[in-house]
Structures are given as structure tokens and as C-alpha cells.
Amino acid sequence: MKKILITGAAGQIGSELVSFLVEIYGRYNIVATDIKKYPGYLSLDCLDRDAVRYLVAERDIGVIYHLAAILSAKAENDPETAINVNNNGLYNILEAARRARCRVFVPSSIAVFSPGLPVIPAPQESSTRPDTIYGMTKAWGEMLCDYYAARHDLDIRGIRYPGLISSETEPGGGTTDYAVDIFYQAVKTGHYTCFLKKNTKLPMMYMPDAIQATVQLMSAPKKKLRFKNAYNLAAFSFTPAELARAIKKHIPEFRITYKPDSRQKIADSWPAAIDDAPARQDWNWNPRYDFATMVADMVSIVKNKPENGGN
Ligand code: NAD
Ligand code: AKB
């Protein structure tokens, strides 16, 4: 079989996607890469066009999951790097894919939507004129993928992920990161200072569902996909206050305080919920975790980590 390349594989999604794909296809068929050093991964900077092309040819790559990116909060602080990695990095990957005829997965985000959409949940086909640098790179990425699909007949698929909550790898500089950090602080110190206001509602999802959805979309028959770049994906929405109340059911002494910072403005520009009916219709997407089961699972896993006294 042709091999599967994952870029940005040391990140929040990549670290869990790699294990999932290894289980299905075997370690030999998975080429995990990142710009940062990670045990067992190859070093690959997606901005190094020649290195990307060489690796794709030399390793006989047939499928690429392109996860390397700069997330929203980091992107506002360093727009130059974000534009470079998210736009030029994607372009390098698509060019390598075009030459080697690879199938490609390119993640998008709830960040693509225009602020203040008139209809919530945000429909699949909505206005995508974001006012954050990250959102702009993601909206441009969706268009570039559609261009390569139409112009070069490449099979490129994508998902607009909501904020992802996971227990394996720390999130990498986004606005929804609070929804992961809060569990670690709740277990370690019993207190969390949230950088978003208490009533900021955002769409979220538990990582096992996001990984399942990703692999499911990549396995779906092409002819069934009305949209490619990219499908809305949803599970549940909540505010920091609602998350704190849910955590308190498991850790009664937990307290939260609020100190909104610059990330509030980013969150305010995103929709509170998105409509994923086309994903459910076209490739049978259905999340396994709801809000309550996600919180119970996260608390239990974080409590059982060795650094928190578990084994
Ligand atoms: P992350 O920040 O955790 O990981 C990104 C990885 O990319 C990092 O390991 C980083 O070292 C690597 N990277 C950065 N610059 C690179 C370069 N030049 N070359 C190669 N690697 C480079 O991000 P993530 O959460 O795993 O997100 C993966 C993708 O999913 C991104 O496109 C992101 O926009 C999208 N997404 C994530 C979420 C989420 O909540 N995690 C939500 C929506 C969309
Ligand atoms: C971020 O907060 O930047 C990401 C995202 C929703 O794209 N988690």
C-alpha cells in the first residue's frame, strides 16, 4: 500500500491521529512528521518546498493529512508566521500532492465564519469573511483546496473542526484551549482563571469523536461528498460557566474566576454553534460523546495521570 504522511503530527490532533492510523494501517505505513522534534517522527518543515516534495516521492506517499498550522491566539500575535505556515505551507503540500496524485485531508475551523452571522447554528453554506488572521488563512485554505480539486482533479477533503478537547497532548495556542486547561487546573489546584468571559458560548467536541470523523470522512465514497472543503462538524456547545458547573459535579471544591484577555475578541467573532446536517447526511457523521460524557471522561483521565497521583 502507498504510505500515509501526517504533517504537524506532534500537535494536539496529530499525536492522537497517528496512534489511530497506526492501529488501522500498521506503523510501517505511517510517516509522522513535524517541525519540532518528537520521538519516532521525521523532521519536516512544510515551508521547505523541496523537502516536502522529496519526502512525498521518496516515501511513496498516497495520502496526506496536513495538520501543520499556527492556531488562532498565536496567529494574532505573529501574523507573519501564521500567514506563512498556514498559506504557503498548505500550498507546498498541495503542489506535492498534485505531482504525486495524493489524496489530502486539510483541516479548517469554526474560525472561517463571518462575525455576527444572522443564522445560528451557522449553516454549511454561510458567509466566510472572518476578521482574525487565523480565520482568514483558513478561509483562503478552503478556497485553495477547492481550486486544486477543480483545476487539478485532486481528492481533497476537509472538516471545520470546533474547539477540540483532549487529554493526550496540550493544545497549541488556540482560543478554545481554556476548555482543556481547565481540567488540568481543576484536578491539580481546584481553581482556574479563565481567559474568556463566563457566558462565551462556543462549539466544541471531544477528540475521540474528531479523530473518528476525520478517518470516516477520508474513507467515504467520493461521489457522496457534496462539499469537500470543508464540512461543518459539531457535537455540543457550552460556556465557561457551564463547563465549570459540569466539572464541579465531579470535583465539588472546584472554583473558577474570570480574567478575559485578547482571546475574548477572537471568541466573540466565532459562532456559538454550527450546523453539521450535511456531514450527517453525506457520510453518516454522528458523535459518540455528549457534553456530560466528555466531562466525566476528561476528569477521570486527568485525575489518573501519574503527575496527578494516578498510575
Ligand atoms: P497544534 O498547534 O497542536 O499542532 C500543530 C503542529 O504543527 C505543531 O506540532 C507544530 O510544531 C507544527 N508546525 C508548526 N509549524 C510547522 C511547519 N512550518 N512545518 C511543520 N510543522 C509545523 O494544532 P492542532 O490542534 O493539532 O491542529 C491541527 C489542525 O487542525 C490545524 O490546521 C488547526 O488549524 C486545525 N484545527 C484545530 C482545532 C483544535 O481545537 N485543535 C480546531 C479547529 C481546527
Ligand atoms: C483555536 O482556538 O484556534 C482552534 C480552532 C477552533 O480553530 N481550537
From TrEMBL:
GO terms for molecular function: L-threonine 3-dehydrogenase activity. Residues 4-233 form the NAD-dependent epimerase/dehydratase domain. Gene3D superfamilies: NAD(P)-binding Rossmann-like Domain. InterPro entries: Epimerase_deHydtase, NAD(P)-bd_dom_sf, NAD(P)_epim/dehydratase. GO terms for biological process: L-threonine catabolic process. Belongs to the NAD(P)-dependent epimerase/dehydratase family. This is NAD-dependent epimerase/dehydratase domain-containing protein. It comes from Candidatus Falkowbacteria bacterium RIFOXYA2_FULL_47_19.
